[in-house]
Amino acid sequence: MSAATRSTRGRRVPRRFLVGAVAGSVAAGALALAAAPAQAAGGPTITVLYDAVGSSTVRSTGSVVPLGPTTLTTVVSGDGTFTGSLPLPPQRTSFKALGLLPVTATVTFEPAGGKRQVTGTLLPGKVRSKARYYLRLSDVTVAGLPAFVGDSCRTVDPVVIPATTPKGQTFDLTNGGTLTGTYTIGQFATCGLQTPIINALIPGAGNTETITLTNGRVVSPQ
């Protein structure tokens, strides 16, 4: 048999035919893989609601800010990605400045990025997500006296808060689960004369949050 041919059940097949067949198979497989994400992304979406409650600890002050109770609304696509909204009610918190002066303030989480400030991906048994809020401070008192920070005292940039399923735990679409994360608080602005003091006390990394989602319910398959 010559080098230019191969035998298949007694027939002599030109090598160029074999090469062409293999190349065609590879091309078809590549097209199928490329089409798969598009088909998944174009699949049906469902709206799922969860009861949500948790807390966040600000590392620099040691203060704890309750999160919720509230409702997380998610719109889940066929490929597992989702967007959502998590309105957080204003909460009162307190700490001691310099370890001495008692400070109290109302913390408001103002959604950034429109109505759907939560984005993420639902993976097998786990969730990866991020939420974006401006943090606004109001009704601040120091040693019982008003600090006069005004109504527009908030972070210059949105605070990005990641929330993922902790290692060793799982997340279920209907039963929910616990999500945790660590985030950074940036600089504040328009807090009047208190702006430099607030920026010396609050901003920084290593802030943590834990939120528990329960009672998942599908409200509108589409």
TrEMBL record:
<protein>
    <submittedName>
        <fullName>Uncharacterized protein</fullName>
    </submittedName>
</protein>
<feature type="signal peptide">
    <location>
        <begin position="1"/>
        <end position="40"/>
    </location>
</feature>
<keyword id="KW-0732">Signal</keyword>
<dbReference type="InterPro" id="IPR006311">
    <property type="entry name" value="TAT_signal"/>
</dbReference>
